[in-house]
Amino acid sequence: MAWRSLRKTSLFDVLLIIGLTALALFMLLPIIFIFNHAFKPLNELFLFPPTFFVQHPTTHSFEQLFLKSGGDVVPFTRYLFNSILVTSVTLLLVIVFSSMAAYVIAKKSFPFKSLTMALILVSLMFAPETVQIPRYLIISGIGMSNTYFGHILPYLASPVAVFLLIGFISQIPNELIEAIKLDGASEAGIFRRLILPLSAPAIATISIFTFQGVWSDIETSSLYMQDETMRTLAFYVNSLLSGLHNSVAGQNIAAAAGLLIFMPNLIVFLLFQKKVLATMVHSGVK
Amino acid sequence: MGSITFKHVYKQYKGEASPSVNDFNLSVDDGEFLVLVGPSGCGKSTTLRMLAGLEDITQGEIYIDDKFINYTSPKNRDIAMVFQNYALYPNLSVYENMALGLKLRKTAKHDIELRVTRAARILEMAHLLEKKPNQLSGGQKQRVALGRAIVREPKVFLMDEPLSNLDAKLRAQTRAELIKLHSTIRTTTVYVTHDQVEAMTMGTRIVVMKDGIIQQVASPHELYNAPVNLFVAGFIGSPQMNLVKGSITRQDGVNYFVNKRLKLPIPIEHAVYLKNNDFRQRQVVLGIRPEQMTVVTGENRGNEQWTVNAVVELMELMGADTFVYVSLGDNQLIVRMEAHTEVRVGDNVQVQFNMNKSHFFDQNTGGSLRVQGDAGA
Ligand SMILES: Nc1ncnc2c1ncn2[C@@H]1O[C@H](COP(=O)(O)OP(=O)(O)OP(=O)(O)O)[C@@H](O)[C@H]1O
Ligand SMILES: [Mg+2]
């Protein structure tokens, strides 16, 4: 009788897999579409009925995007440079600051520890919109408008990241920390050789959402940057899209720009997601 | 070099009503293998952790080689510790686990390699060096933890129940290997266990603790044969020493241990310390080890005066021995016999006390009359 129930479940599995695959493909359609759209030559955009797949792919729209950006004075590459700089510095600092804070909160005792925890918890509950005005006042008050600090600073304190890491680091057995202490590690050594590597899965998760948040953020550019040369790619793409309205001719450029915003997100996700899974499987921490 | 001295060391955890370690005084010689033993929660780990620098010392002083180390940070105490759960760095290979301590102390690379491979050879785990801790069995992890300690060549090894996660066979085997290892490298070792068998087989000197207080510091032989109080008497030895309440009277120049069921003459060797203790005023406890009792059979009658009637309640065959549980009024006593015995459960038997090997304790204080009497004499 065993083979029968086996076949029954496997039939169910097959149906499930087919169903889910179909759903996944359906969800993938917009991405495939934007891919094709970005590589379409101008004449294909005007075809009627519109085509889904590109017939004669060209990098024309990317060239346009890179070399000259419509009538704008700021070249596309400047936005790109700003974005890369801001995102990478922010990401690095968020990881360093969050994990340091989380290590201390998870493993050390100090005065007002529970108050500190409570404050972090409370700051988790604020909707970003509610702090926009005070943030603006602070940033412009200390003269950080139109500097890279204005992009980076608002993101540095990441309560979500700290919270996630506290949960993770508090599961590292105290004996490990004591063992490495006896082995001769300083506090910095404990942090660098033990806490950071063992928090890799949590750091990977944080990296994914911090990268996506900062890379696609337009708030800092639109609120704190009046100087166009200091604004980021996401802001540029956003204004490009809203400037297009319903004109057909710019669609491929918009798609190309959208793709450039989207691709790093995807790459970072795939890169770190693998790390998340790998460390979960191999971690010897119970 | 690595001698250790504790002087009036106390530890009281924050918010605790009583100290977890109470007036701890001890000297450990260089090269000694000292065992700290006691029931769960008696403060063994706390003592060890104070020595390692992982726990603050509430009061008192600790010295290593005459150097006052109360405020020395753990990394500067030149101590290596083996933890109960091994505490191997999960992100590092076995080799890196062993090398890290040396690396952090800026040892030259070729020297690290030399020491790690030598330790791996001693512990027969050269083939494991490339593996990660989660690819090892419990016994192998234990070896790596040991290897990590010995490559450092520290002044002192601390081990906190390092064998308790191993199965019985591996534990016995590792126990023997640890002793062998200590006889080769001769590093001062403080070894914590709650298992008295482990303590008796490994320690050259044993510290028995209870409720944070040292009960007795002695060799295994002395602990077994001259326990200073009821606690040590009951804690050391398996099966437990038999303890029977009663009092001592003197008739016609002979001391007798008496209670409702018994009247046993006490040999003359015990007379001096009993007299020094003013025994007639006291309620006492007679202690006698299971192997100092026998079930009397037909021809071998021994001393008739030390023989009483009892009923066999239970028998446990332990391979070479049989533990015979007999009831004697309110008391249940254990008699250790050979495996092959004619005795059956339910039998009415005669059991004999070898009173030459008896111990007497004060019922109120628990102290041994022999020790108190000798001190008073
Ligand atoms: N961090 C702590 N805070 C408060 N009390 C503690 C702390 N650590 C230990 N204690 C208390 O101190 C006493 C001694 O603990 P310790 O860990 O030294 O016992 P132990 O002899 O090692 O026992 P075991 O054999 O179970 O390991 C216990 O009563 C315990 O409750
Ligand atoms: Mg303990």
TrEMBL record, chain A:
Its main location: membrane. The chain crosses the membrane at residues 12-35, 79-103, 110-128, 148-169, 190-215, 253-272. Coiled coil: none annotated. It is found in: Cell membrane. This is Carbohydrate ABC transporter permease. Keywords: Cell membrane, Membrane, Transmembrane, Transmembrane helix, Transport. Residues 80-272 form the ABC transmembrane type-1 domain. It is a multi-pass membrane protein. PANTHER family: ABC TRANSPORTER PERMEASE PROTEIN MG189-RELATED-RELATED (PTHR43744), BINDING-PROTEIN-DEPENDENT TRANSPORT SYSTEMS INNER MEMBRANE COMPONENT (PTHR43744:SF1). It comes from Cohnella silvisoli.
From TrEMBL, chain B:
Residues 4-236 form the ABC transporter domain. It comes from the Bacteria. InterPro entries: AAA+_ATPase, ABC_transporter-like_ATP-bd, ABC_transporter-like_CS, ABC_transpr_MalK-like, ABC_transpr_MalK/UgpC-like, Mo/tungstate-bd_C_term_dom, NA-bd_OB-fold, P-loop_NTPase. GO terms for molecular function: ATP binding. Pfam families: ABC_tran (PF00005), TOBE_2 (PF08402). Keywords: ATP-binding, Nucleotide-binding, Transport. The keyword Ubl conjugation does not apply. NCBIfam families: PRK11650.1. This is Sn-glycerol-3-phosphate ABC transporter ATP-binding protein UgpC. The lineage of its organism: Bacteria, Bacillati, Bacillota, Bacilli, Bacillales.
